[in-house]
Amino acid sequence: MIALLKDVPRWLIYAALVATALALVPLALIARARVVTSSEPRVHLIHDMDHQPKFKAQAENPLFADGRAMRPHPRGVVPAGSAGAEEGFATGRRGGIWLASLPVPVTAELLRRGEERYNIYCSPCHGLAGYGDGPIAVRADALQEGTWTPPSSLHTELVRSRPDGHLYNTIANGIRNMPAYGPQLPVADRWAIVAHVRVLQFSQGATMDDVPVELRGQLAR
Amino acid sequence: MKSDAEPGRFVFPAWTNLIRPALAIVLVTLPAYLVALVWLGGSPKTTDVGYRPEQPVPFSHALHAGQLGMDCRYCHTTVERAAFAAIPPTQTCMNCHKQVRANSPRLLTVRESYASGLPIPWVKVHDLPDYAYFNHSAHLRAGVGCASCHGRVDTMEVVQQVHTLSMGWCLDCHRNPDPHLRPPELVTVMDWVAPGDPAEHGRRLREAAGINPSVDCWTCHR
Fold it and tell me: In this predicted model, what pLDDT tens digit does every residue of B187-203 receive, in sequence order?
């Protein structure tokens, strides 16, 4: 039977070889697509209802001049339920006087939350211990940016003497070159961070007398 | 082929006897080939993984999240509270870039957006079908790390999709979440590895927190 191959017309053999080679091209393209990255929009063979005529979060809507499907709040509008908050809790001051202490109970949970939020939002500049030596500050120094103002250490006499309400206001609205973190931090988290700043200040100024007697042995090395 | 065929009568040459076995081979391989083509070509590993769109600003996660070690949540603030992990507003960029690299041409688009109030047209990398209702906050609360779905974003100069995000891929984890669970407070630690066996570590976390991922249709399709 193999001997018969000799008699098959040449064109037919070539056609079969070309067809086989062409059939391998899609497989090669697939193999390539599986190993390389592409900035081209994804191949979407079957659309089903993958793209529905609705607007999801942060989607684009060409009907508006700014293209935002999510409309920015009109000036002066606040989310429902947030307007009735107590003045001291919401602003850090009552009757124009800074709150001297937190308007929320200080619990272990609040301190844990404050530490976590501080490490996320504050430590990039102020550093984990609050000396103003976070990675952003270090990098800005290394870049020798003329536009850079180093972040404050939280352990200066000035910052230590600030009332809690003043620290809250600084987080919410910024101060000097520090931008406002209100847009990134809900009200309760700002107070938790104030609590953690107090923890840092206490810990960095602590003496051996502040350490419980039974734990002093671990430190006296 | 008969050699004594009558002259003038058409006789199939002997090689045509090969057509039948050849046809048999084609009939077997062609369907297999077509199945392989659709199977491999239509797979999200082919169509979706590796999607790495060019962004309007050459923002580097490798620098910000990797080298500088900024927490994912510094920018993606809604991820713990909402279904959607928001792309930060330009204001968040300007927290630092008012002062750092304030005149860099690479940041021109950011400064223009800040001045005009028009959003930067970032390109969405991870895009689920519109009928899949994924919730970031629920997954963070259960202790599924960012890297489990998004890969090591802290090493990417330009973000790309590394997992299929297909329904089968979601269900793999919903049916066997243990190897992908970690303490919820460590979800943003990109290089986290489980102490010991990930499945055993995750099993203890799952039992302690009562995590019970649903595989009902309506969990994701509402």
Answer: 999 999 989 899 999 99
Say if residue B3's pLDDT is above 70: no
> Which residue is closest to B73 within chain A, CA to CA?
A120
The answer for A 51-90 residues in CB contact with B (under 8 A) is 51-52, 54, 56-58, 60, 66-68
B221 touches chain A (CB under 8 A): no
Burial category of A131 from C-beta neighbours within 10 Å (exposed 0-12, middle 13-18, buried 19 and up): middle
User: Phi/psi of residue B6, each to 5°?
Assistant: -65, 140
Yes or no, beta carbons of A45 and B47 under 8 Å apart: yes
Residue of B nearest to A64 (CA): B118
Greatest distance between any 2 Cα atoms in chain A? 106
Q: Which residue on chain B is closest to A179 by alpha carbon?
A: B95
Measured CA to CA, the distance from residue B60 to residue B58 in angstroms comes to 6
pLDDT digit string, tens, across residues B121-157: 999 999 999 999 999 999 999 999 999 999 999 999 9
pLDDT digits (tens, 9 = 90+) for B148-161: 999 999 999 999 99
Nearest to B65 by CA among B136, B147, B185: B147
The backbone torsions φ and ψ at residue A178, rounded to the nearest 5 degrees and listed phi first, read -80, 125
A76: left (phi over 0), alpha (psi -120 to 50) or beta: left
A10-33 and B19-42 helices cross at what angle (nearest 10)? 20
The minimal CB distance from A124 to the residues B70, B82, B84 is found for: B70
A:95-154 residues touching chain B, CB 8 A cutoff: 116, 119-121, 124-125, 135-136, 139-140, 143, 145, 147-149
**Residues in contact with B98: Cβ distance below 8 Å, sequence separation at least 6, in sequence order:** A147, A179
Using DSSP's 3-state secondary structure scheme, residue B209 falls into helix
Regions of chain A where pLDDT drops below 50: none
Boundaries of every domain in chain B: 14-42, 60-87+125-220, 88-121
pLDDT band at B4 (very low <50, low <70, confident <90, very high): low
The verdict on a CB contact (< 8 Å) between B100 and A119 is no
Using DSSP's 3-state secondary structure scheme, residue A60 falls into strand
Domains and CATH numbers, chain A: 88-207 (1.10.760.10)
Residue B151, chain A, CB below 8 Å: the answer is no
Which residues of chain B are within 8 Å of residue A62 when distances are taken between CB atoms? none
Does the distance separating the beta carbons of A120 and B71 come in below 8 Å? yes
